[in-house]
Amino acid sequence: MINRRFVKEQRKAKGVRGYLIYTMNKEYVFRVYREDHSFTDYDIHHCDLELTINDDDATFYEFEDGRGTLDHSYEIAGENHHSDKDYEIGTMEEQKEFDKKRNE
Questions:
Q1: pTM above the 0.90 mark?
Q2: Which of 21, 30, 78, 98 is the most buried (most CB within 10 A)?
């Protein structure tokens, strides 16, 4: 809950364009850039925020074991976009190993 005594400014967020960022602290923030390329990262406390994906390379992957993953497309202009070029994610165990390496 927001303590209003400490709020400096309040404005509606509807229609604001920003980016969902996964930080080095292993948490998500909503990043809003200004014209001078500076930005503000907003902690996300909203529990059911509606989003629309606009990225051309965003791709849903559905696995045989019922899991789903949203990631970059593995094929962008004929090249693998990921830094894990020799590492394919398919099983739950491979996903866990990949996440472990990524977060080290």
A1: no
A2: 30
